TrEMBL record:
<keyword id="KW-0804">Transcription</keyword>
<dbReference type="InterPro" id="IPR011075">
    <property type="entry name" value="TetR_C"/>
</dbReference>
<dbReference type="InterPro" id="IPR036271">
    <property type="entry name" value="Tet_transcr_reg_TetR-rel_C_sf"/>
</dbReference>
<keyword id="KW-0805">Transcription regulation</keyword>
<dbReference type="Pfam" id="PF16925">
    <property type="entry name" value="TetR_C_13"/>
</dbReference>
<feature type="domain" description="Tetracyclin repressor-like C-terminal">
    <location>
        <begin position="5"/>
        <end position="104"/>
    </location>
</feature>
<protein>
    <submittedName>
        <fullName>TetR family transcriptional regulator C-terminal domain-containing protein</fullName>
    </submittedName>
</protein>
Amino acid sequence: MRERCDKAGSRQDARGCEGGCEIGSLASEPADSDQSARTRLVSAFDRWEGPVRSGLARMQARGELSERADIAALATALLAAIQGGMLLSQVRRSSTAYRQAVSAVIDHIESHLVDAVTLTDRVG
């Protein structure tokens, strides 16, 4: 997860932090005025968030992620950090905000990881 987000930050840097996220760029205007467009945007964001949620759920099912972890909230938080970080990076022309926001959410997700000793005890 962290590696993919780092690569996205590097892509932002390579573009001079111009352009931001295509979905996010499209979302602000029509979301308030065009119900059909808003519905399509919700679907687009859900398709983007879905694999994150699924991956976290698989980790939880394998016992790698605490049962207390709220998978939906963690996936939404990561998506929000990506979107907000990209917007700030675009405005500031620096990927620092993106990298900080995403790193903070990943740190939070990692705080729900079950440590290796506990996993070994469960398996062994």
